[in-house]
Amino acid sequence: MKTLLASLAIAALTSAQALAGAGAPVPEKPEGGDPSGRPGAILDAAQCDEAWNNATNDADHLTAEQAAPVVANFDMVDANSDGRVTKDEFDEGCKKGMVQQHASKPGESEGGQTPEAPENK
Prior knowledge:
The chain is mainly alpha-helical and 121 residues long. It is built from 5 helices and 4 strands.
């Protein structure tokens, strides 16, 4: 009896996963870089400085919220895990492709990541 219940539970869980789908598709031409959180293009020093200046508004560090539009993975850029990204950490993130020059959003749109009519696949 226990084996039967366990088998039914496993079958129900795997069926639910199969029906859940993959979620909203990634835009074909995202502006500013890959919105996936993976490393992207490496910025040169001038591009990195521009991204820093746009994100900080003259502050000496970035919080996770401030960094979110341009830092692909905050925890990887925040080398000392203090919850803030300094200019030195930001520069290192640029060298590793963890910083993008502009926030990601679908091309030719007003922003956001989910299309108005997602495709069902």
